[in-house]
Amino acid sequence: MSPKTLYDKIWDAHVAHEAEDGTCLLYIDRHLVHEVTSPQAFEGLRMTGRTVRAPERTIAVPDHNVPTTEDRVNGITNVESRIQVEALDQNAREFGIHYYPVNDVRQGIVHIVGPEQGWTLPGMTVVCGDSHTATHGAFGALAHGIGTSEVEHVLATQTLIQKKSKNMKVEITGKLSPGVTAKDITLSVIARTGTAGGTGYVIEYCGEAIRDLSMEGRMTVCNMAIEGGARAGLIAPDETTFAYCQGRPHAPKGAAWEAAVDWWKTLHSDDDAQWDKVLTIKGEDIAPVVTWGTSPEDTLPITATVPSPSDFEGGKVDAVKRSLAYMGLTPGQKLSEVEIDTVFIGSCTNGRIEDLRAAAEILKGKKIKDGLRAMVVPGSGLVRAQAEEEGLADIFKEAGFEWRMAGCSMCLAMNPDQLSEEERCASTSNRNFEGRQGRGGRTHLLSPAMAAAAAITGHLTDIREMM
Amino acid sequence: MEKFTKLTGIAAPLPLINIDTDMIIPKQFLKTIKRSGLGANLFDEMRFTLDGAEIESFVLNQPAYREAQILVAGDNFGCGSSREHAPWALLDFGIRCVIAPSFADIFYNNCFKNGILPIALPQEAVDVLMKDAEKGANARMDIDLEAQTVTSSDGDVFTFELDAFKKHCLLNGLDDIGQSLGKVASIDSYEAQIAQSHPWV
User: Would you call B115 an interface residue with chain A, using a CB distance cutoff of 8 Å?
Assistant: First the structure.
């Protein structure tokens, strides 16, 4: 048998039909659904008299535009948001799919709920009408975002029309230095590949530094594979993965568990597998990083200075001019001296319990800078409950952070959590696009610990100075 | 889905790289449960001031380009979110074709589900077409999907590549779901097989 990559193996295990030209119907094991990209798909089913083929494989949860204030138990005030959440509620009941309503403690960001509930397992195909579906690749599941027409296609057929992508290996060798996290890895990879560097590829992240990460860190790495343009990011499952999955509500039990693990252990790239592209980075060369511009590729170590348009070539020259004007930054300015107005800790990138622990560790016994706005939005109701039990919520509140309910919140600012014009935010989310967190808002992406450090000092800060 | 065969129209130049889907249709317009009506807010934050007045310098506000049906843009067009509202907004405005050196994967696929043709051409070709687009309303480009060509107003012809299946669906305005349901026997047999081999899935 010819050697295969992990991606090849998962792909081969899911081809339900292959046409002569290589166009496949890829079977989908888990379809995650949220309120913003699904209403038109369900409406499409109704208009054509179709139904959901596999409701037992379909899981819905509202997350994108739910408010994160505690008064949301009384209902959503914004009419349009309420209509979308009500539509999801109705569609979930009408089509009989699994559903975590907004007031269920298990509600949260779809990419946090899926793994938490054991829906996401190694070797699966997972899709969702959301680009950060890449997150689930951390389990060795082939997971990617789809558009609403494809959501409708998966609902109706439980398959997706796909052609195979190319294989790219991203290896992070050796150990990470103190203060360097999964977020720094994933941003540093994008800094090297560019936001289009992964287009047409599925990336497999490997190497000692990746193996050493917890499942939560691995999810952070894979989450941003899409920011590098890749269709999906993958990490081969191992004992860390199995330990995370075991005992989750929807993970297999007993003999089924044993059989599953036996198969999962075969899910790794063969030693002599062929790669279309390889990128190797030494773990020790990765520093704590922040973004300075309006693309995730605009990433530099916190010790660097704001670059000049003349440092670049091609279309990037004008893009950098535009970014610097938008961000209100001057070439040569030290990144560690950039003052911030707001700190946001949360999102499907960094809204899990370990992220909250990392931030709380820095904040313990400290106060945020006077006048700063800071909020923590746990990724799910269960993360929130656990953080309260561990005393993390108290640390955040005593430091001056707002302690919120679960949702996507200020990562994409569809709910009331938004930046105003020129408000500068240190954010643990995934996109620093113009207007992403609110029109005219300025986003600097960084790790949870770095966000906590910035909250204390009031400016972007090298976490290593606080350790 | 409307067929796409040939198109002769005004091309608007948008010489920016990494035009993301948040730029194409900002999130405040994603709260709809319909596919229609998004053209009014296409490129909203680049096109309008906070109080809703048109920003004159933005290309689609200029008289020559108000009726544009083609966009010529920089590398990595459509990056970011998977929101299909981006192609819906383009289509609703009247854009049927986008030409760029490269496209983000999800956006590219979403276009084909909506009768929009995304054309990827080498940077040098896009540079020529960008200059052509800058000439305004009298310079019209011709797109021929069957022949896979773009012809500038000066008669420069560029051939583009695309997947044969995607081309077939677009030329004939075919519904993906209907086609896939035609293969339901394969899906049935896959499910039966997996129920035996991987019952926990």
Answer: no
